[in-house]
Amino acid sequence: MSSNDSLHASLGHEARPSDATRGAAPPADTSDGRPRPSSIARATSTAASLHSPHSPYSPRSPRFRHLAAALRRASGWLLIAALLAAWQRAALTVPGLAEVLPPVDDVVRRTVGALQQGTVLLQLGHTLHWMFAGYLIGCALGITIGMATGRSRFAHDLLEPLLELTRPVPIAAVVPLLMLFLGIDAGLKVGAVAIASFFPVFANAYAAFRSTPRTLDETARSFGLTPWQTLVQVALPHAVPTVLVGMRLALSVSLVVTVFVEMIAGNSGIGYFILNSQQNMAIVDLYVGVLLLAATGYVLNRGFLLVERRLIPWHISQRRRV
To answer: Which residues form the ABC transmembrane type-1 domain (predicted)?
Structure first.
């Protein structure tokens, strides 16, 4: 055998794997430290599976999106819980603070007791009764006058100066005048709430009816619709979402004004309960009234949103974003 043949035979013998290592898996890295192509492929496949929409850990998966939406919706309540915890700790640790800021557990126990007795619920019922009476009157007048001034140039020119003169007057300045004409009984509460709720509804109704696209009116005329049919079938559906925004704003304003009137000229209602607690130095009862008022406002707002969702489910504001 020649020297070349001996060299090729020795190289071939070294290149063949041994029997012990013939069935073993190849190492993950090469001799120079770089990963083998098979390792790169497995890592890429794993990363791709994590980012796949079908993976529960992918940001695009429905499970991940629903979890993120749930956490986002709960963030507000988590903030309230943190504030209540800070309130409780401050009331228990800061010397003398409990005299003006009682612990949360004391306020909760007193609230439960007041609700079981029913006295505070009776006061709240008086407030809501007169609030809704004035609110409905103000909404009816606001929608009617807003629709008239928005659709009629004559009505706009006739009423615009009077409305713009009276709108900047604060309700606190109007209440003493109403006392001269309505006294300090239920008429004062209804009148003050009606005036306070009128302007938000009127402003939104006027803007909604005024902004009806001209093409819609021209199309209605081309189909032979009468002015009344155009108002009911064209302008009113276009204006409803904006009018509801004004009504929602007026609802919170009505509650505030009702409590304000009960504080200055009333012998019943949640406003009278809060003021009476402050005058008698019943600090815990004072906080009970304020927190109950806040909860009432929240429930009213959520209830209005539910009604709004039923009335205009087609509107873009009702689309739930996840």
So the answer is: 124-301
What is the value of pTM for the model shown? 0.75
Burial class for 17, CB neighbours closer than 10 Å (0-12, 13-18, 19+): exposed
Query: 162 and 72 in one domain?
Result: no
Tell me the per-residue pLDDT of 132-176, one tens digit each, with 9 for 90 and over: 999 999 999 999 999 999 988 999 999 999 999 998 899 889 998
Tokens of 94: 């800061």
Question: Domain containing 224: what range?
Answer: 104-318
Q: What angle do CA 157, 235, 243 make, to 5 degrees?
A: 80
Q: What is the dihedral of CA 104, 109, 112, 115, to 10 degrees?
A: -90
Same domain, 89 and 137: no
Of 71, 98, 125, the residue that ends a domain is 98
Please say whether the beta carbons of 187 and 137 come within 8 A. no
